[in-house]
Amino acid sequence: MNPKVWEASGHLAGFSDPLLDCKECKTRRRADNLIQDYDKSVNADAMSQEEDRIVFNIKPALAPIKINILPLIKKKHAKKARELYTMLVKYFMVQYDESGSIGKRYRRGDAIGIPYAITVDDATLEQETVTVRDRDTMEQCVIPVSELITFLSKKLW
Fold first, then answer.
1. Which of 17, 62, 88, 113 could form a disulfide with 56 if both were Cys (CB 3.0 to 4.6 A apart)?
2. Which of 24, 25, 54 is nearest to 37 (CA)?
């Protein structure tokens, strides 16, 4: 269609179509297509009660916040978790969350699309290892703190 027709009809002046560029795969997506990545599923937890799990399955490279740092017990693990936050914030967009139970913190991160959660627990204090949880598979792996930046860089980019 001729561009003058679009201009005469008023479509050019007020038209906004925000796009997101993925540096990883070199593609461009419309922002409204991200809603397709929003998933709600029902899971049965350990108490046999049904619970909704809302997950924003955005690609890790497109997620605005890459990592959620979660101390298992606030009073016991918060200091080490804040040290990890300070270390990782230089390389990634990181969020720190210590309110509520660990399961609810995982769910909050899943709902806003944070691809990885790092849990600081007793093993972190004793052996310098952390538990890294993947949002999409819910699998957890134990990683030494010294290898954390390399591991996350490979997973995120």
1. 113
2. 54
